[in-house]
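Write out this protein's structure.
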Amino acid sequence: MKTFELKYGCNPNQKPAFVSMKDGSELPFTILNGRPGYINFMDALNSYQLVKELKEATGLPSAASFKHVSPAGAAVAKPLTDIDRKIYFVEQESVSPIASAYIRARGADRLCSYGDWAALSDVCDADVANYLKLEVSDGIIAPGYTDEALEILKTKKGGKYNVIQIDENYVCAPQECKDVYGITFEQGHNNFKINEDLLKNIVTKNKELPKEAVTDMIVSLITLKYTQSNSVCYVKDGMAIGVGAGQQSRIHCTRLAGSKADNWYLRQCPKVLSLPWKENVRRPDRDNAIDVYTSDEYEDILRDGEWQKVFTEKPEVLTAEEKKAWIATQSGVTVGSDAFFPFGDNIERARKSGAAYIAEPGGSIRDDNVIETADKYNMVMAFTGMRLFHH
């Protein structure tokens, strides 16, 4: 297939629309089910690059959950704990490594992953398909599918679930182009490799960077490489737990990503784990209810009686003091930034969400202030020397 005609572009009025190779060659993917749209393809092709690079850098099966051309989450494979199974609604017994990677990627921000695009570095198996079967998702891209997985995925969305198989040996052209307002921009494809060598310039007094934190730094930086800038990413145990994308100021990226990391951690709070759910409450409704329960508006909803729709009894309020105290127990978090932190306030905010390790390019005229702030909390900070803007 050399050209695939799309129903429309970003919006229904943007016609005609299609995807093709600039040199007229065959497209490097096959559509196995559904009819992906313009934004689906943008998510698919960006997300696959992320998981492919993450697998190459870590050697671990990797996955991402994309929405509107930025990751809601990304993760490498790790065994799921009992708490993971509960907070990510894992009902199946069998969870393969690639399934664990996707479950963790989607679990970073389940609210934002509603209607996501899934990306896998490895062949999609039945364990991934069985999990996706119960989630609201627009489509998936992977280098291959088992027969059983494909049959399961074809049952989603009334048989219209989008399934794309990418040629894992495809190498893109060294130059890339795009048009804005009828004007063509051209640049070299971002082939910059992110690996351990990038993290050797540790600028803080504390230079003890454990192996787990190295992996987390790599996860954060590769995630940022495919996140709409400005962006900041919080990572723990090989998974992004908060992504702040597309903000005009760095501190707002840090706050947004930090608040998402806090929300992820709050799902593990004992009061949240013991919420008295009614039977057959759908996963999206549980995600929404948890988001409301951990928000500042929950007491108003209690008074309005909305709790009766999802809970068997009125849950006890999770107070602001309890939330603050629980979040304060978070530790060992890594924070990456796609460009330098201009002020120490970013470090101060990151610390409130358990940050202990920082990876950022450096190069600000206030680097000394940023380093001093990190030193104040005995953090380890590496200057990578490389900006990772993505637009």
